[in-house]
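In this supplementary section we document a worked example of the pipeline. Step one takes a protein sequence of length 367 as its only input; no multiple sequence alignment statistics are reported here. Step two produces a three-dimensional model, which step three serialises into structure tokens for compact storage. The input and output of this example are shown verbatim.
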Amino acid sequence: MEKHEHVFERFIDFENLYGGYLLARRNKRYRNEVLAYTANLEENLINSQNHLIWKTYEVKNLHEFIEYFPKKRIITVMPFENRVVNCAAYNVMWPIYRKSFYEHSYGSVDGMGTVRATKQLQYWMRLIRHKKENWWLLKMDVKKFFFRIPVEVQLEYLGKPINDPDMMWFYEQAIKCDGRAFGLPLDAQNVTDCERIPGIGMQVGSLISQMTGNVVLTPLDHYIKRELRAPYYMRNMDDMIALAPSKDQAHEIHERAESFLYDRLGLNLNSKTAIMPYDAGPEFVGRRVFPDRIQIRRSSSLYMKQHLRYVMEHYSTGELDLDYCLSVIQSYLGLMKHCDCDAFRKKVLEDFVLVRHYAEDNTNYPD
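The serialised model returned by step three reads:
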């Protein structure tokens, strides 16, 4: 494996830090924290650069909150100045890691995405239905993926293609953040009450965590494809699909992949892991994929209807503006564009009506 040196120097270059700022502010440039940072942009970038040079850089207190809809989960947000530095590191390191990725890794990879993943899976289904073997589909999902990866595993795999102690020092600061524990027990049901476990897990949502998730699972991709010789295999972050010409081979891939995950990465598969006939309509990236059609997952369609009712209700009271409401319906129409759901699309458009209700004016004016 090629070892890259002096990446830290490229990372802390002022122009690269400015590129990190541009990436971090994308679609957020008018938020208060971004405007405050931009008001003293050069000074703030030089300040971050100096902290990195003198090894005094630290991740400040994260803002943590619980998101309850559509399911309860922990969200942590870094201060903007730390997001700028993370984005600058991503700009330098992503091209290095991207070279080693498996060709059918779709999660958080530019030019890939969920639409391309479902189209590729459907293409494989159509291809194998003309083969003589009795094909089976293996669906695997890692249990609490982002909250269970050991910190030492993250650092080990991030460090494989680089020979730069300074960059590894930065990775350690970025992963450990402000020192809080991110890990969750495997059997955790209520994320607000369960005990956090130090030494495992990561801050979810940053480009560094997305990059790390892909880097950590890339060896599993090559193991399944090259050593287990799965004929057709793809991954979208921690969701994996493999097609095998027999049920026995599907079980073998499952057992050996599970052992690889536990032995090498300290991870476990969850209860959503299943083996089924290839044309049974597996759920993948929010859709059900069949050889002849792609449907929206039932839970996704129910969520859409619930969200659209919420949008209409809060637009009527003035809590949501028109631009936001239109962006929601346009995003859902864009999703439905790639699915076979004409009746559902028609029903959504018929029911989605925006009406603003104004309070009655009861002021008594003199005659």
